[in-house]
Amino acid sequence: MTILSTERLSISFGGVRAVDAVSLEIDAGKVFSIIGPNGAGKTTLFNIISGIYVPEEGRVRLAGEDVTGLVPERLARCGLSRTFQNLQIFFRMTAIENVMVGRHRHETTGILADLLHLPSVGRQNERTRAAALAALDRVGLAADAERPAGSLAYGALKRLEIARALASEPKALLLDEPAAGCNPVETQELERVIRSIVKDGITVVLVEHDMRLVMNVSDRIHVLANGRTLAEGTAAEVRANPAVIEAYLGVQRSREAARAVG
Amino acid sequence: MNVRVLLNSRLMAIVAVAGIAAVLPAFFPSAYYYRVAALVFVFALAAIGLNLLMGFAGQVSLGHAGFIGIGAYAVAVGPTHFGLPPWLSFVAGAALSAIVAFLVGRPILRLKGHYLAVATLGFGVLLSIVFTNEAKLTGGPDGMSVPHLVLFGWAARGSETWYWISAVSFMIGAALALNLLDSPAGRALRAIHDSEVAARMLGIDVARMKLTVFVISAVYASIAGSYLALFNGLITPEVSGFLRSIELVAMVVLGGMGSIMGSLVGSAILVVLPQALTFLHDYEHMALGLILMGVLIFLRGGVVPSVAAMFARRRP
Amino acid sequence: MAEFLQFAFSGLTVGAVYALVALGFTLIYNASDVVNFAQGEFVMIGGMTTVFLTLAGVPLPLAALIAVVAAVAVGLSLHRFAIEPARGASAVVLIMITIGASIFLRGAAQVVFDKRFHSLPPLFGNDPIRIGGASILPQSLVVLAGAVVIVVLLWVFIDRTLFGKAVIATAANRLAARLVGIDTRRMGSFSFAVSAAIGAIAGILVTPITLTSYEVGTLLALKGFAAAMLGGMGSAVGAVVGGIMLGLLEAFAAGYLSSQYKDAVAFLVILIVLFVMPHGLFGRAKIERV
Fold first, then answer.
1. What CATH number has the domain spanning C2-276?
2. Tens digit of pLDDT for each residue in B51-73?
3. Which of A27, B241, C15, C212 is the least crowded, having the fewest Cβ atoms under 10 Å away?
4. Nearest-CA distance from A84 to chain C in Å?
5. Do B180 and A89 touch (CB under 8 A)?
6. Interface size between B and C, measured as CB pairs under 8 A
7. C-contacting residues of B 257-296, CB under 8 Å?
8. pTM for the full model?
9. In this structure, is residue B146 part of a structural domain?
10. What residue spans define the domains of chain C?
C-alpha cells in the first residue's frame, strides 16, 4: 500500500529548477531512500513534502489524501514528521523536554487549564513525560533525559531529533541526513534505530550520503541528479545502473581522487 | 524528577517571595518605602507578562506600555465618563486590552525580528498619541485623576494597602506564569523560541501560540496599568509612552529573559535605582545609563540567570 | 497647489534628516547587526556642540568641524567600550545597550550643555525663497543639498573603493568576509564613525530650522529607525526613500489632517506597509533553509 506519493513535483529558485517533475511512490512500512550528489534537490524535495515550500507544479499525497500546499503543522497532524539536516534542536530545553514537545499533537488541555495547572494538566504532563522517556529510550538516550540539549554530542542530537519526531507517532518519518557527522559506532546505532522504527510499521524516508547505511537499510532507492529522477530500484538494481554510476559514483570518485591529491 | 518535586520547586520561589514580602515592612521607616515596594511589584507584574512573550516565546515588543495605558485609562475614564464602578472598569480594561491585542497581534506577529520591533513600537506610540490627544476623554497631556477602588464599601487607599494588593497580585501572576511554563502550551512557546520550523513540524500552530501569549502578556500589562493608576490617583499619557515600553523591556532583559523571578529583580532595579540616584542630581541619567550598559555587558544573560550560573559553578 | 508645495518643502526638509538618521542605522546594522538607538544622539551632539562652541566665540565652520569630530569620537567609543565587549550577546541585549548609551549621552549633554532649546544662524539668511506660491527657507535647501552630497559621497565611496567593497562583503556575510581576510571589527568601528559623522552633520544643518536641545535625539532615533524599517532593514536606498517618505507623510498629515496626529499617521502608514510587505519596501524575503 502506498502511504506517501508525489506526482511530478517541481519548484525553482531564481530560475534554477531545483526539483523537476519528481514522482515518488512510497510503500507503507518500508525504508525508502533518496540519494544523489550534493545539490541534487533532495532536501528541497523534503521541504516540499513537509510543507515548508509550496511546489509550483505537482501534487503530494499522504495516506491517499491530497496534502499539496498544506502548512507543516497541518501535515504533522496528518501523521508526517521529519528531522533536519542542519539540526533544529530546542537548545534552551532539556533532552526530555525536546521530546515532550513532540507529543504536542496528542496533548489536549486548553490554555486556561494550563494557566491554572488543573489536575488534568498534571496527569497530561505525566503521560507526556512517560511517552517521551520511552521515545528517548528507543534511540538510546534515556540516561541523558534531564541533560540540557545543548550539552549533548552531535550524534546524540541527531538521535534526539529522531526521538522527538517519533514521539509524535507519525505514519511517515522523513530523515534528512541522519548519519552526517556521525562516527561509525553512531552510524551503526542509527541503523539499529531505523530498523526498529520500521518494525513498528512506520514508513521511513531517508535522505543520506552514507552509502553503506543506505544500501543496508533501504527497501527501495530513488536517485536524483540536478533535480531530476535518474533511477529507482532496489539497492542491487541501483548499484548496477550505469547512469547512476556515471552521475553519482562519478562524483564520489572524483571527490575521493581530490581527497587523495589534496 | 517526579511530579511532586517539580511542583514543589515551581512554587518554592513564590513562597520565598511571600516570606520576604511579609517580613519586609518591618524594615520600612516610612510610607514612602511601601510606595516604592508597591511600584516594584506592579511593574514586575507587567514585566512577567512581557517576559512570557520575549523570554519564552522569543517575540519582542517595544510597545507594551500601550497596554499599561489601556488598563490605566480604563479605571480613570470608566468611572469618570461612563459611571462604571472602578472594579468593573478594571475588568473592562483587561478585556479591552485582550481584544486589542487579539486584533493587532494577528498581523503584527507575522513580522520577525526588527520589523516586529518597529511595528510594536509604532503601535505603542499610536496609543500614547491617542491618550494625549483625546483630551475630552483623557484630560490630554495633563492627565486626569482616578477615583479610589471601592470593593464592598471598602476603599483601597494608602501606600500600605497597595503594597499588600500589589504583592499578592504579583504572586498570583507569577504562579500562573510558572504554571503555564510547565504545561503543553508552555513547552510549545519555548519550542517556538528556538526553532519555529521544528515546532511547526511537530504540529504546533505557531501563529496561534504567539497570539495567545501576546494576549496574555497584554492582560498582565493592563492589570499592572490599572493598579498603577488606582494607586497614584492620577494618570498621564506618559505611562503609555515609548520610554515606559523601553523601561519594561529593560526590566525583562536586566532580570533575565526567561526567568520569572528575574522580572521581579529587573523591576526592583529599575524602580529603586532612580530613587536611589536622586542624590546625584544632574548626574542621575548618566549613572543610570552607565549602570544599564554595565549590567548588560557583564551579565548579558540577566541578573538572576547569571547569578544562578555562578552558584552552580561554585557547587560542582 | 501652493499649499501642497509648501507641505512638500517642509516634508522634504524633515525627511532629509530622517533619511540621514536612517542611513546611519543601516550602515551600522549592515556592518555589525546592531540596531543603534543612540543614533539620534549623534544628531544632538552635532547640533549642541556647534551651538556652544559658537557661543564661546569659535567661528562657525571650525565649530562645526569640531562637533563632527566630537561625534565621531563618541561613536568610536560607543563601539569600542559598549558594543565590542558585548559581542555575541542577543539582539535585544545589544539594543538595550545602545538605549543605555543614549540615556547616558542625554544625561551627559544635560550636564555639559544645558536643558534649553538652542538655534544656529542660518547660512544664507532668513529670507524665504518663493517657488510656485510656496516659500522655502534657504536653510532647507542647504539641508537638502547636504543630504544629497552625503548620499552621493557615501555611494561613491562604497561602490568605488576597495574599503567600500569590504563593507559590502561584511554586510553580505560576516564569516565569509573574515575568511577572505577582512577585519570585520574594523568595519564595525568604521560604520560607527561614519554614522556618527553623518548624524552630526545632519544635526548641524537642521538646527537653524528645527532648533536643538539635549533631548532631540530620542524622537529622531525613533523616526530614523521607523524610516529604515519602512525602506527595508539593511537597504541604503530603502533608508533614504523611507526617510523622505516619512517626512512627506508627516508634513501632509499635519497640513491636511491634524497637526496633533501627524506622528500617528506616520506610524499608521508604517504598520500598514509592514502588514502588506513584511520586509519593508526594498527588503527581500529570505528563503528559509532547513
1. 1.10.3470
2. 999 999 999 999 999 999 999 99
3. A27
4. 6
5. no
6. 128
7. 257, 282-290, 292-293, 296
8. 0.90
9. yes
10. 2-276
